[in-house]
């Protein structure tokens, strides 16, 4: 699923690399809204005025697009009704559920607006204005600045500009995003509505049909949609959740077209794609392929199988691990898809050849050579250094990462306990509080296995990449017996296994802590300086790469004599394409629209394929209503298209040539995850739930015809 | 892969149930060669005289078809050259290999005939004559015989007729097979050549490309072929392996057509399909679906993962388990395919409805009712009884099965040790020797886990299905602690863990054995009477079902007013169809010819996808020779068609409308394994390696153009 994947590697956040925009690559690209005029969308198939999508001087389609935090969504009625993915509201539905009212399992329908329940943790943000502030930002940079100094200057200027704008625009959210590294910066001005409520959520057996098995898979049969609603204070302004609040009236909402789309139709998508790494250097790709992704994918696989093993005899334990397993599996499958794609496309090799061409071009002119001559070489050196200690850094991340605002489930830290100990050690100085999630996830038998795993990983690091803190803890005896002894000792003695012990340790000074004689706290104290060193190293790398990246963008634009458009960076983008099948492998063709017959083929009596009885009955009766595909007497379920999406695009409206909503984007095909690194016409495919399935389920299963009426679907 | 799967359930061998032959089902059926005249093959697409396939009075195509024991094959030259599957010669290649000459890994090519090495354990049998002996066999049956008496009378008459014919036909192999239960019997007269040698075997990376991952999978890219050669004594008669032997000159060999086939082409196959269960009763199918297949599939899964776990840190151990894991996985995947198919097609339910119709037909006529009225009811009762103690019988089989001629790898016994103990206990009376394979497979840590597994399975049987011998051994304490204690005791005390101990125990009388005080031998002694009881129960069931089955065939033929043709029973059969893709699932279409590009897509650096460098280079150079598919500039690799095959058809020649060889059959698509129970036009697909891939590899990779010359391919 296209949840925004949180990347903990600091370097990523500073790197924006870009890709080629040319007339041939008609279906490639996540275009910034401000660049739409360059696109000639009419020639591609759009049947409305491109200015009606974004018009800086008036109301346009983009005001119907909602950022709900890690996901996208859209308004579908004048009363603030929002259509997005089931997986985007999953946590809110979980939070609203109790053992007596299990909305996740049974689904949720508010019979009247008064029955709509709060979607905890969710907000609805609408981007209203975009301002190019590149000149303002870059005025902070002076020639001759060291990379790290330059980065800091840019950061400071961005903070200053943001603060100023924020003061001028009370009630608005202001954010400045780097679009092209060291080149262009855009200020996004938006409004954030804080009262969001659940209107209709299908049961999990529909909204999550196929579960982890089908995740990143086409053909797909998941009814991954939900309806929520944005509320404002009685004055129409953003307000905290309150009974007196009223539905928000958006300036624009999307027209829902109940006729859906057909193979070959032009479609486009507006949303908030998170992060792409197109045209990164071959050095970056090689590092990802050789070190980071296989390490994380393998470790996640181990963590998942360990948690599954522990959960098998005990349903309560399995439930405790559920969300964590889901997140780990999502990342694992994404990485394995990418690794397969990189190997299949020989991506590193391909990128190397492109860079050889670029270097030749640079070297051909003495002036170019003076400016750009060593950019690639310097980049290579940074990645060489990273590679030379890659396992050290990855294992250190697995041991513990602080500070972190992420729930334990999304963290790279394998051992909750070491993470807690690290927080405890830092708490004396910084008063960091461990999040509730860290404690909720705690399960001693699992924690013991996790702890042993990271200690073993550290114990088997090659000479020269050893983690000193672990060497000290193990007294340089790396035998399995000694590791077992050490793990036993830690679990026998640490105070951190219980909430009380944890509470008592928090906020103590280092001296007080060391008096406890707690072996886990001792380990964390020894790890802290190593982690600080790693943070510093990464900040330095990041600043250097940021500067090199800016130079690279510069010279590549000259070399290719083409415009660049920025990588995805969680800002509003448009992508377009056609409804289109693909051939993922030899002798295999997958067509672009799945059917309810396919749902029935997968249906079994247990999770994740347990279709509700009412849907089975409706299928048996062939009661497809107005949504029937007459040629095959079937109901469309999901749609595939060659638009260019990534994590964060979940919940984005799929629109037809007239800008009418015909589906809700929620995933990519497995082979397409490679498009985070390189767009590939043959493999890059995204997946939406078909609006016809959404409407049919809402009407026939959910008995919520009134929502269809509200959307103007007759 | 289509190895003949050995079924240990005695009942199966006595049950031949049949299926409908009608003009609509044009592509269904494994036709006995003697029935071909009923088929009108010309109308289906055959372009040669059907009499040239089988002519009782002259030389015909069937004399080019070879039964090599569990697999099929065909002569492709006048000098006894035989083309079959790589997996059919696997054991012989393994036996011919040494650590210095690893023919499995590197492949094998005999540069001259003198270099051809013995294919140990292999024989080549050619069916020459078929005689209908139904009247002769059935003359042994008298009215009023009890089922078991009737079965014994038929068995005795078959033995007598076989012995007589054998005496009249020295040098020939005579076998009488039941074709339709209680109705028809055919005598097959054949010649068996005992000197078979390896001529050309591709490396395992080609012949087993895809390994277990791809087994039962389409699209497929396995080069599953090998060339062997039959030899005779200098007098042209069958002879044991000897240097003076000369190549056999078959009376007929197949013409190899290097142009292959195209989508839609008519094809047919001659071979020795092992066993099908079409039109078995719903009771049989329900038993298979609910009890036997899930039990075996789950147990195999456990055995495989246990062996893989043990083999991970130790390559030697992994190799020891290799063949066993392969066999277990093959069966597991086959069963899971069948279970999925049964559930998808609701096969039991479907069969129940057919039977309801049949019962109505029977009941409509008093005379019919008198003869057939209770046939279904009686059958149901037998399966009810089987089901009521299904878990008991299955676990008893898992504990130990004797006597057995099967290698441990194919046995349902989980614990080698209990099996050995059972053999030891029986050896006093019967002088049974444990096979070398039983000892070779022995690995104490694995054996300890296996033993604990079967004891635990027995300990958790429901009340009323308990195994007394295990109850006694555990003294009715079924706790995990007690099981561990018992396992420890057995392994501490038994003499059977070592070859010496085993040898010393063999042949001892029961009294001598009991003096040893060996807990394992005590368990085996207690198990023996239970196993004897089970054998007796099964013989009784089998006889009853055999009689009921004959009546069922009778009345079904009347009811449907159609001819029946017999289920597969390892005798020579013809099946035909067309080269044809299929849609295994919603929105998915698989086309019927794969390519070398597909091989490259799957190629990695490690087993089972490690394509040899020379093939990679030839692909890079697009050096496809005369075998190139011009439209896509690619090389065909495997072919899919809707003919009806099963285990035993491996190695069968795939022939075009002119009877020319265009491929070598080796597998079915996963979804097609259900055709053992019910043919399904939409799912039943078989797989051959394309002759163009065979010839291209033999010529370009194997550098064995002389073999192409021998086959007359220019």
How would the blueprint of this fold be written?
The structure is a homodimer of 714-residue chains.
Chain A: H1 10-14, E1 19-20, E2 31-32, H2 41-44, E3 65-67, E4 72-75, E5 81-84, H3 86-96, H4 103-106, E6 108-109, E7 117-118, E8 124-132, H5 134-138, H6 147-168, E9 173-180, E10 184-193, E11 195-201, H7 204-207, H8 211-214, E12 226-232, E13 246-247, E14 266-271, H9 282-311, H10 315-345, H11 347-363, H12 366-372, H13 375-388, H14 390-399, H15 416-430, H16 436-440, H17 444-459, H18 468-474, H19 480-493, H20 499-505, H21 510-516, H22 519-560, E15 564-565, E16 573-578, E17 582-585, E18 588-590, E19 593-595, H23 596-602, H24 613-620, E20 636-641, E21 653-656, E22 661-668, E23 686-690, H25 691-701, H26 705-710
Antiparallel strand pairs in A: 1-15, 2-16, 3-4, 4-5, 5-12, 6-11, 7-11, 8-10, 9-10, 11-12, 12-13, 14-16, 14-21, 17-18, 19-20, 20-23, 21-22, 22-23
Helix pairs in contact in A: 6-22, 9-10, 9-11, 9-13, 9-17, 13-22, 14-17, 15-22, 17-19, 18-22
């Amino acid at each position: 699923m296209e949840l925004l994947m949180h990347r903990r590697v600091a370097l990523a956040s500073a790197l924006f690399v870009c890709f080629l925009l040319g007339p041939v690559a008609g279906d490639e690209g996540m275009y910034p809204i401000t660049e739409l005029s360059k696109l000639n969308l009419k020639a591609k198939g759009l049947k409305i005025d491109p200015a009606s999508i974004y018009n800086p001087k008036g109301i346009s389609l983009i005001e119907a697009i909602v950022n709900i935090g890690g996901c996208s969504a859209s308004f579908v009625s004048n009363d603030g009704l929002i259509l997005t993915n089931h997986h985007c509201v999953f946590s809110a539905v979980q939070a609203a559920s109790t053992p007596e009212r299990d909305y996740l399992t049974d689904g949720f329908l508010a019979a009247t607006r008064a029955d709509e329940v709060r979607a905890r943790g969710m907000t609805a943000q609408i981007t209203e204005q975009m301002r190019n502030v590149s000149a303002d930002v870059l005025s902070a940079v002076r020639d001759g600045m060291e990379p790290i100094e330059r980065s800091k200057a840019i950061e400071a200027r961005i903070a200053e500009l943001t603060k100023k704008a924020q003061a001028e625009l009370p009630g608005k959210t202001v954010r400045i995003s780097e679009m092209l590294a060291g080149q262009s910066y855009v200020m996004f001005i938006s409004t954030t509505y804080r009262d969001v409520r659940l209107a209709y959520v299908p049961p999990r057996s529909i909204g999550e049909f196929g579960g982890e098995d089908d995740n990143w898979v086409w053909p797909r049969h998941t009814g991954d949609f939900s309806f929520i609603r944005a509320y404002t204070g009685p004055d129409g302004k953003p307000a905290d959740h309150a009974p007196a609040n009223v539905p928000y009236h958006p300036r624009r909402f999307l027209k829902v077209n109940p006729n859906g789309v057909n193979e070959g139709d032009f479609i486009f998508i507006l949303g908030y794609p998170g992060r792409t790494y197109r045209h990164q250097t071959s050095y970056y790709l090689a590092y990802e392929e050789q070190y980071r992704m296989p390490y994380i994918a393998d470790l996640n696989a181990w963590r998942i199988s360990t948690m599954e093993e522990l959960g098998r005899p005990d349903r309560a334990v399995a439930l405790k691990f559920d969300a964590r397993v889901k997140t780990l599996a999502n990342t694992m499958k994404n990485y394995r898809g990418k690794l397969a794609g990189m190997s299949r496309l020989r991506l590193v090799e391909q990128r190397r050849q492109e860079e050889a061409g670029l270097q030749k071009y640079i070297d051909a002119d003495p002036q170019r050579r003076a400016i750009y001559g060593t950019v690639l070489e310097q980049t290579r050196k940074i990645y060489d250094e990273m590679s030379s200690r890659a396992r050290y850094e990855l294992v250190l991340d697995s041991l513990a990462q602080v500070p972190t605002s992420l729930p334990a489930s999304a963290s790279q830290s394998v051992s909750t306990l070491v993470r807690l100990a690290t927080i405890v050690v830092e708490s004396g100085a910084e008063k960091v509080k461990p999040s509730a999630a860290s404690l909720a996830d705690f399960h001693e038998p699992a924690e013991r296995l996790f702890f042993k795993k990271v200690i073993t990983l550290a114990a088997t690091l090659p000479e020269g990449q050893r983690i000193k803190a672990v060497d000290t803890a193990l007294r340089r005896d790396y035998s399995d017996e000694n590791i077992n002894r050490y793990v036993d000792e830690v679990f026998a003695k640490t105070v951190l296994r219980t909430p009380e012990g944890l509470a008592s340790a928090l906020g103590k000074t280092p001296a007080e802590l060391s008096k406890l004689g707690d072996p886990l706290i001792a380990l964390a104290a020894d790890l802290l300086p190593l982690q600080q060193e790693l943070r510093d190293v990464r900040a330095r790398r990041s600043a250097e790469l940021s500067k090199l990246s800016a130079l690279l963008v510069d010279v590549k634009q000259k070399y290719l004599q083409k415009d660049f458009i920025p990588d995805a960076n969680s800002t509003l983008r448009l992508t377009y394409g056609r409804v289109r099948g693909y051939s993922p492998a030899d002798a295999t063709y997958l067509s672009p629209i799945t059917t309810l017959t396919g749902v029935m083929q997968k249906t079994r009596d247990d999770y994740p394929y347990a279709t509700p009885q009412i849907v089975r009955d409706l299928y048996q009766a062939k009661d497809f209503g107005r949504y029937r595909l007459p040629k095959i007497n079937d109901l469309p379920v999901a749609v595939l298209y060659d638009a260019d999406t990534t994590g964060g695009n979940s919940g984005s409206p799929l629109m037809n040539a007239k800008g009418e909503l015909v589906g809700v984007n929620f995933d990519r095909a497995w082979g397409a995850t490679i498009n985070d690194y390189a767009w590939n016409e043959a493999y890059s495919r995204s997946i939406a739930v078909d609006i016809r399935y959404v409407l049919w389920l809402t009407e026939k299963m959910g008995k919520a015809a009134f929502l269809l009426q509200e959307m103007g679907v007759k």
